[in-house]
Structure formats: C-alpha cells, structure tokens
Write a structure and sequence with these properties.
membrane; single chain; mainly alpha; YpjD/HemX; transmembrane helix; two-stranded antiparallel ribbon; 2 domains; about 260 residues; Cyt_c_assembly
Length: about 260
C-alpha cells in the first residue's frame, strides 16, 4: 500500500512539473490553478505516506530518508503556497522532482531509526525548530541559485531572462534575504532549544552536529550583517548562502548517512 501511495504522489508531482516546464521553455503563460490543485493532491498523498512511515509501530521512525522526505514535503508545501503570490515557477520543477524522488526512496528503501518522543516535549520542540530551520534555509539556497541564474542570463542578454514567468532579479534578492532572516531565526531557536532541553549535544557522535550547526549560524549571520551594513549583493550573497546550506546539511545528515548507509 505504501508503495502505491508513493507512486501516486510522485505521479502528481511530475504532472505538476509538466504543467510548468513548457511555460519556462516556450515563454507561454502558466495556469496557476491546475498546477496548484495538482500539487495539493501530490502533497496530500505525500503526507499520508509520511504519517504511515514515521508513526509506524512503537516510537517514531526518523530514518534519514523519512526525514529527507518530510523536509521535501515542507519545502514543496511552502513553495506551492508561495506560487499564489509570487512567480516561483523556476524553482517548483526542481522542488517537485526532488519531492517525487524522496517519496519514492522513502517507500522503496525503508530504514529504521526509532525515536521515542512521547512525553519528551523539549526534544519535540528542538526537532520542530530544526526541521523548520533546515527547510527554510534550503529554500534560501534555492533562491540563491535562482538569483545566480537570473543574473547570468541578464548579463548575457539572453531571451530567457525576460520570460514573463520569471520573477524580477531584485524581487528574488529581497525574497532571498527575507527567507535567510527567517531561517536564521529558526536556527537560533534550534541551537537555544538544544542547549536548554538536551543534555548530550556535545556527546560523541552528536558534537559535530552542534558545532557545524553553529558554524552555519555564523555564516548566515555574517551574510545578514554584510547585506544590511555593507550592502553585499550578487555573487558574494550566493556563495555565502550556498556555503551555509552545505554546512547545515553536513550537520543534519552527515553522521546519519554514515550510520545508516555506510556502516550498516
């Protein structure tokens, strides 16, 4: 049953993508309503499967693929809602394709990392902040890549740069910094909740996560300072955002990837 749900969700993600790509390539109008409804169906089946995979049996199965699928769901949901107000068409095919791959992987390559969250309010708060922070800053990384691509096209006067389905460069930059600011705020809450609620954040096997998360926080904080105080823009902003996202990914998934797939 789980495999079927995953296939249905992936199929609707692909269908939504297929409605967007022609508009980007041929510069034709993209109909928001059909894309949005199709994406909502994909998201419905996605969260249905996640509930079954994560809440299966005793405890919560927070395997690396389940967590990655949950984060991709959060990103896809956020950006699907964003399409109602802003032109996110360039990012959505990437997000939906990644979500389709994630949900198929979590269904067909099951893993086990059982955590017992019942009665552990502090841990739940910490994990919630961590998931929101990571998803938000991954969206920031996508905005940074979009910013770099649009800048590249505009500098070379490419026709694709004036595609009406694409957002203006300055709008993307403003959105990028809003998302970075929100993500850095949630990352701050993640670190604070870790220090408050967890006793083993510097224990062997976990210290690297804390240290790398703090380094990522420093990178994003410097980026915000540089933008607001020094007027940083362009390539420097892109590199800082991508670097922070990579460091945070290493913090969140590096050790788990080693434990679940390499050493198992």
């Amino acid at each position: 049953m789980d495999n079927l749900i995953a296939i249905v969700s992936a199929a609707f993600y692909i269908a939504a993508t297929s409605m967007i790509v022609p508009g980007l390539i041929q510069q034709t109008s993209i109909r928001i309503k059909p894309v949005f409804v199709t994406a909502l169906v994909a998201l419905f089946f996605h969260i249905w499967l996640l509930a079954d995979l994560i809440l299966h049996g005793s405890g919560q199965n927070l395997s690396i693929l389940n967590v990655a699928s949950l984060i991709s769901f959060m990103i896809a949901l956020s950006m699907s809602l964003a399409m109602l107000k802003t032109r996110t068409w360039l990012l959505l095919p990437v997000i939906y394709s990644f979500s389709a791959l994630n949900i198929l992987a979590s269904a067909y390559l099951p893993g086990n990392f059982i955590t017992h969250l019942d009665g552990r309010v502090g841990l739940v708060i910490h994990i919630t902040f961590a998931l929101i922070a990571y998803a938000t800053l991954m969206i920031a990384a996508l905005y940074a890549l979009q910013l770099a691509w649009l800048d590249y096209k505009l500098k070379r006067r490419k026709a694709a740069a004036i595609n009406t389905n694409l957002p203006p460069l300055m709008m993307v930059e403003r959105q990028l910094f809003k998302v970075v600011m929100a993500g850095t705020g949630f990352l701050t809450l993640t670190l604070l909740s870790g220090f408050i609620f967890l006793d083993d954040i510097f224990a062997p096997g976990k210290a690297h996560k804390t240290i790398l998360s703090f380094i990522a926080w420093v990178v994003f904080s410097i980026l915000l300072w540089g933008h607001h105080k020094q007027g940083w823009r362009g390539r420097k902003v892109v590199w800082f955002t991508i670097s922070g996202a990579i460091i945070l990914t290493m913090a969140y998934f590096g050790n788990r990837l080693l434990q679940e797939f390499i050493l198992s």
